UniProtKB/TrEMBL annotation:
This is Gfo/Idh/MocA family oxidoreductase. Transmembrane segments: none annotated. InterPro entries: Gfo/Idh/MocA-like_OxRdtase_N, Gfo/Idh/MocA_oxidrdct_glycsds, GFO_IDH_MocA-like_dom, NAD(P)-bd_dom_sf. Residues 6-118 form the Gfo/Idh/MocA-like oxidoreductase N-terminal domain. The keyword Oxidoreductase applies. It comes from the Bacteria. The keyword Signal does not apply. Residues 130-264 form the GFO/IDH/MocA-like oxidoreductase domain.
Length: 380
């Protein structure tokens, strides 16, 4: 098998720029082409990153493409990923992987029939901060994790996104849009979920866009925007997950996990880096010693300052895993279980009943310093 697998991207919106700009950091992959139903968008990205602009059908038939990255809107993730598999190519999807268990199981069967791989974002749990928290938990220093809290709350995407409509439709909302980062990190830190319960609300039935170029335009809201959920894990841990786009400000930490012997404070799972703090029983809270994990090193300037961003790491890990014949970390099973959790939360919010998970998965293998460095391309 070739040392680098050819990659094509379907969907040239906002997130595509991160994939194109960060892909050269990693070995095992080579960006070759991009496609979009809007050919102008495809041509713009192709010119920007020196790629081929193709129609979707052309990309699916392109013999130089081994893996297709699905960056379309969530409502069509299933149909696009199905087309990719039917074309005989591996697929790596942006989150959420699909919008139902049935869709995910259908894709799984199609992939297994053809001997293909499916992967899915998020890969932010590869970040140095989250792998440091994983190492602390796996060391046993906190004892068994028994409970925790997670909070991801703000006031919606209409304040910054140029076309925020889909965020407020079924298939999005804070659980399915931001929730994958939190749920996936919880699974890699604690393990699979057994059952969930939730309350859901939609305080505002429409939103006013304040970002350009559509400032002042009103858009409908057809999915819950405040969801308070309770997750019971297979190991017995119970974690509260609060998600909302109806909050202007709050003082909650992104993620805290409570063990029999201490507490770990985990930074925002939406990002790769951050400060990990912990307590050892009654001792004062302290930072974990800094370690030399490559995916915790700030490499991009954001509004908050320099931050670590290594999106595409999950795609590279999948490509290398295909070549090496090993499991990849951003697996279909992990992504499908996260979808099971999130859609279960939404069903519980509608019904007022506990919802048992239909799937389970293994925790993905930890990505330590050595393993992370092995994903990076050699510097010239």
């Amino acid at each position: 098998m070739a040392s680098k697998l050819g990659v094509g991207v379907i969907g040239c919106g906002n997130i595509s720029k991160a994939y194109f700009s960060l892909a050269p950091l990693f070995r095992g992959i080579k960006m070759r082409a991009c496609a979009d139903i809007n050919m102008d968008a495809a041509k713009m990205r192709a010119k920007e990153f020196k790629l081929r602009a193709e129609t979707v059908n052309e990309l699916l038939k392109d013999e130089e493409i081994d893996i297709v990255v699905n960056l379309t809107v969530p409502a069509v993730h299933y149909e696009v990923s199905k087309a990719v598999l039917e074309a005989g190519k591996h697929v790596y999807s942006e989150k959420p992987f699909v919008l139902s268990i049935e869709e995910g199981l259908d894709l799984k069967q199609r992939a297994e029939t053809k001997g293909l791989r499916i992967g899915s974002a998020p890969d932010t749990f590869f970040g140095g901060a989250h792998q440091l928290a994983r190492e602390l938990i796996d060391s046993g220093k906190l004892g068994k994790i028994t409970s925790g809290t997670c909070h991801v709350m703000g006031h919606g995407m209409e304040h910054w996104h140029p076309n925020p409509d889909f965020f407020f439709q079924p298939g999005a909302g804070p659980v399915l849009d931001i929730g994958p980062y939190y749920v996936t990190n919880l699974i890699q830190l604690i393990g699979p979920v057994k059952q969930v319960a939730a309350f859901a609300a939609t305080p505002a039935k429409e939103r006013t866009i304040s970002s350009k170029p559509r400032a002042g335009e009103k858009i409908p809201v057809n999915t819950p925007t405040t969801i308070h959920a309770l997750l019971e894990f297979e190991n017995g841990a119970v974690v509260t997950l609060n998600t909302s786009w109806d909050v202007w400000s709050h003082g909650h930490a992104p993620m805290e996990l409570y063990g029999e012997a201490g507490t770990v404070f985990v930074p925002d799972p939406n990002f790769f880096g951050g400060e990990v703090r912990f307590t050892d029983a009654t001792k004062p809270v302290k930072k974990l010693p800094k370690w030399d994990h490559p995916f915790g090193v700030p490499n991009e300037m954001h509004s908050q300052g320099m931050m670590a961003n290594y999106r595409t790491a999950g795609l590279a890990d999948m490509a290398i895993a295909i070549s090496e014949g090993r499991p990849h970390r951003c697996s279909m099973e992990l992504a499908l279980h996260a979808v099971d959790v999130m859609t279960g939360i939404l069903r519980s919010g509608e019904s007022g009943k506990f919802v048992a998970m239909q799937t389970s998965c293994e925790r993905p293998a930890a990505l330590g310093i050595k393993e992370a460095k092995a994903l990076l391309a050699k510097k010239k």
